[in-house]
Write a structure and sequence with these properties.
heterodimer; A: mainly alpha; 15 helices; 76% helix
Amino acid sequence: MSSWGDEILNLMFILMGLLLAHTGVRALLDKTNPRRYTTAAFWLLLGFTFAFGEVVSYTLIGVIVIVLGALTLSKGVKVGTLEEGTQEEKDEGARRLGNWLFVPALALAGIAVAISTWAPFGDQSGTVSIGVASILALGIAWVLTKAKASTVAGQTDRLIQQVGPIGMLPQFLAMLGAVFTAAGVGEVVADAIATIVPDGNRFAGVLAYCAGMAIFTAVVGNAFAAFTVITTGIGVPFVFALGGDPIIAGALAMTAGFCGTLVTPMAANFNALPVALMQMKDNNGVIKTQAPIAAVMFVIHVLLMYYWAF
Amino acid sequence: MGPDWFVLIGVVVIVVGFMLKLDAIAVVIIAAMTTAFIAEVSFDDFLEFIGETWVSNRTVSFFILTLPMIALSERFGLKEQAVNLINRLKGMTTGRFLTLYTVIRQLCGIFGIRISGMVQFVRPIVQPMASAAAEEENLLTEPNDELIKAESATAENVGNFFGQNGFVAASGVLLIVGTLEGLGYTVEATDIAGASLPIIVIAAVVAAIHFNLLGRRLKRNAAPEGTESNEGSLQ
């Protein structure tokens, strides 16, 4: 049952590899791209890490990851000519299909939920649900639009190149988060905060627990990674031990960590991916609009934990 | 061995690199290398470690699989239809629309509907609708358009973060339960989800106020040109 899910998951990675390699080949053939060889190298190597990640040695993948960084650092990844589609074509499509155009996006969500609930692929169902749903939703979109295969290929390439290498930043940062965790950055942050918190002061304890979650989350970009470290290092001695309800304080600590997620470039899938997806000019644009909300929510977390958990 | 303050240098590299707007991917790799160097990890082990974590984190980039469907829908007028739809809803300002989306996103979270909203909804549907609502009021100057992009992502993140823990089987809830049980406390997932509800309601109120203020900010930004603010509008 679970190996069935693993097979499907592996198939998804191969499919991602093919999508990326397809963009690499198109970039190579695109003479309007000023850096077509390095651009093609980036997408092909990236595709390779997805399709063959489990087959080759991790050391080789590590080398490729560094090469990918060198390619973006040397501004080697450029966008050539993309298959944009004219405004007339888009307007015509909207007139012809109307609200049916929303069906594939909604079907994607619906199918993904159905798969993760119904779990036909065992333990991997949650993970593969988005992938399987994407394929089915693409099928629906294809049937609705009656598009030619070359249009589907051209459009896929367009969006992958528009999102660009920055769309891969979340995965690079997840990797860095693992390096930080392995190097013990979490313990250092927890220890640093623990040394400055006065013993036996409830408010100071609550403030340290919330701030520890927000700061450590901002550093590694992931509140889940922060929760265990900060709860053990700060939550237990400075909040729970003084009589704070672990259920209330624990639940609030997690969302206090999310306040840190709102303001960190480390949480790239939330704060940098939209910049890439919408081609925004300011890399920190999303963080700037979220900062006031994060500040207000943080203060509310501290007060709520102080008055409700005790 | 006690904690080593020098491991924080990798964090400094990230912060400085991102602030100086250097190539983000290269900065991440340099920060990882610096941290490994300070932790006295050999280069071979470092390569193997990043290779392994890269491969085990491939699911982070799963959104790539959704791109063909989104790209195809866009080519046949998804954004245009989203704009048509919002134009039919009279009185739907950018602020009200983003508040509505935040609450819908929270409800998705509470009912356990996991979606990658940025790719599926924000880029193709929410941001075009939010921009169209601003255009309806003649507020869509170039800086406002950029601001609306950021605020559309904000609505998604706030709705996603402060909604998901209302669901008993959310991964965050299960992590809290697992951690607390590991520390010797007795907890049920339903307790954690229940304790998350007040902050979900508070977040909705904060978002509503934030997006109400956004409406005023959009007007203020577009004001210097007065009634000619249309001039600078984007299509």
